[in-house]
Amino acid sequence: MKHSGLTSESKARMLGISLVILWLLVWEWSVQFGLLRNFFLPPSAVLALLYRSLLVTGELRTHMWATITRLVGGLVIGAVPALWLGFVMGRNKRACLRYGPVLAVLGLIPVVAALPMLILIFGIRELGKWAAVSAAVFYPILYCTTIGVRSSRAVQHAGSSPAGSVNQTDWFYGAGPWIFAGLKLGVVIGLATLLAAEMFASSTGLEFVIVTAARSGFDVARVYVGMAAAALVVYALWLCLTAIEFALSRSISVRSSAGGDLHGGATIEEMREQGRTVS
């Protein structure tokens, strides 16, 4: 049964990759045969220009590094208090009822609409862009963390009951997947907000490259390169978070299996019950 589950997961991943490749091929062939307008560049040309701008001439390297540092800095600044408050609200129902409505109202305000105010408060330098990104990622991470901790506690209570059969050390029944889902969602929302901030007040960054290309006779190739670089930044951060999540889940699974083998396969609750009986 476990082998068939892995096979189904592999098939689903292969199907997703195949759909992406098929979409790129259709895009490439459509441009080559003239089915699309002239402002659509084929993926091969976009990748070649991206390679040249990053590794050959290096003209895009400074702008890409500026966007990465702003995104990572704002993500860290927004994620630390969001994770802390999410754990507090997830474990304390009174705190959730007290602060939840206020944070929900603040979270519904689009950060893009508040960019002029953030620029006035923090200025047009790096601090203003960090503030914009941190404000954008705060609520998604807070919400996912709160739900994850609350669900994990519900599973723990179910596992502590006589009828509970869920292993509390299972990664998929804990708050970990919810936390990483919030972080990944924060990366996407944070980059979208950062690109808007770079559009209004910046002389570096990927959105500055796109806007400059659009203003100077609408350089389509440079616009595509900027968008491809932004997608590459998101994908790289997404893969990093996925790798960390996978490593943590494997570590927890190994510790759980080692603990179970050490105690004859008994779960934590069974060991506690045995200890109570002996005492």
Quick structural summary:
The chain has 10 helices and no strands. The chain is an all-alpha fold and 279 residues long. The protein has 2 domains: 1-40; 57-278, MetI-like fold.
Polypeptide structure, described:
With 279 residues, this protein is an all-alpha fold. It has two domains: 40 residues; 222 residues, MetI-like fold, CATH 1.10.3720. It contains ten helices and no strands. Helix 3 runs antiparallel to helix 4, helix 4 packs antiparallel against helix 6 and helix 7 packs antiparallel against helix 9. It is globular, with a radius of gyration of 24 Å.
Spatial extent as radius of gyration:
24 Å
Helix content: over 70%
Tally of domains: 2
The count of DSSP E runs of length 2 or more, i.e. the number of strands, is: 0
Structural class: mainly alpha
CATH topology term of the largest domain: MetI-like fold
**Overall CATH architecture of the largest domain:** Orthogonal Bundle
Unreliable stretches (pLDDT < 50, length at least 5) are: 161-165, 262-272, 274-279
Produce the secondary structure layout.
Blueprint: H1 2-32, H2 43-56, H3 61-91, H4 93-107, H5 115-122, H6 126-160, H7 176-200, H8 206-215, H9 220-262, H10 268-278
Helix pairs in contact: 2-9, 3-4, 3-6, 3-7, 4-6, 5-6, 6-7, 7-8, 7-9, 8-9
Which descriptors would you attach to this protein?
MetI-like fold; 10 helices; disordered C terminus; mainly alpha; 2 domains; globular; 279 residues
